[in-house]
Design a protein that fits this description.
This protein is mostly helical and about 130 residues long. The chain is built from four helices and no strands. Helix content is about 75%, strand content about 0%.
Length: about 130
């Protein structure tokens, strides 16, 4: 039984560490605020949750495990709430995700009766942008 607990703990630590590493890279490498906010929430929820689960498995049925479980519960409630509050504040201050921002320099959509050449030209221009 101890071997199984050790294996599960190791899996939780490795997978949690992977999420922490990938989320940290995402916070450094991702382009805009919104993508970085998602990476930060992955670190908080998945990474720390799995590492604390591994700690709970190692602690056994003790008071320490109960305290760790309360920490996990607290993180799962406050992490998404904090991310939502930050995203809402950014949205209200005028920051918008890339999909919501109009590109004023983009080529306008062709009319329905225009030739196929125009449609191809517009699609090629958009692929380059």
């Amino acid at each position: 039984m101890d071997l199984l607990i050790d294996i599960l703990t190791g899996i939780c630590f490795i997978v949690g560490g992977f999420f922490l590493f990938v989320g940290s890279l995402g916070m450094i490498r991702l382009v805009d605020f919104w993508a970085r906010l998602h990476a930060a929430s992955v670190i908080d929820s998945a990474g720390l949750g799995l590492i604390l689960l591994g700690m709970i498995l190692q602690a056994g049925f003790t008071l320490i495990a109960a305290k760790l479980a309360l920490i996990v519960l607290f993180l799962f409630v406050t992490g998404p709430t904090a991310s939502h509050a930050v995203a809402n504040a950014a949205f209200m201050s005028g920051s918008r995700p890339r999909e919501m921002v109009e590109d004023e320099t983009a080529i306008e959509e062709p009319k329905a009766k225009t030739a196929k050449k125009t449609k191809k030209r517009v699609s090629k221009a958009r692929k380059k942008a």
